[in-house]
């Protein structure tokens, strides 16, 4: 009877260890998703409310980023495990270019805000 209790306790410890590991590993991803959702909402609100320079670039960057999250699933369905690395390389380049597009839009927006603030000061 004691052997059974030991096995159950060991199983529970393994389960707790795996659960805590998944929680810790997933915490960073969860925080990143929350931040991305907040940025997405902010960019959409900015896109709808103003015609400032760079806002269009930021909006399209966010739309393309959301599409970029779908690409790995489509590539896995199309190719499977073999050849998946090719899509990973393409996706990395794609996401890098999207980040540059969003950064350029943010640069245009901040330049516009700084110029307007300098004129009004």
What does this protein look like?
- The mean pLDDT is 82.
- The protein has helices spanning 2-49, 55-79, 84-120.
- It has three helices and no strands.
- It is 91% helix and 0% strand.
- The chain is mainly α and 121 residues long.
- Helix 2 packs antiparallel against helix 3 (84-120).
Give a summary of the structure in a few sentences.
The chain has helices at residues 2-49, 55-79, 84-120. By secondary structure, it is mainly alpha-helical. Helix 1 (2-49) crosses helix 2 and helix 2 (55-79) runs antiparallel to helix 3.
Which labels suit this protein?
121 residues; mainly alpha; 3 helices; 91% helix
Q: Spell out the helices and strands N to C.
A: HHH
Radius of gyration: 23 Å
Q: Looking at the structure, what is the overall shape?
A: extended
Largest sheet: none
Query: Overall mean pLDDT score?
Result: 82
Give the count of helical stretches: 3
Low-pLDDT regions: none
Name the structural class: mainly alpha
Q: What oligomeric assembly is this protein in? A: single chain
Distance linking N and C termini = 82 Å
Q: What percent strand?
A: under 5%
In total, the number of strands is: 0
Roughly how much helix do the residues carry, as a percent range? Answer: over 70%
What's the arrangement of secondary structure elements?
Blueprint: H1 2-49, H2 55-79, H3 84-120
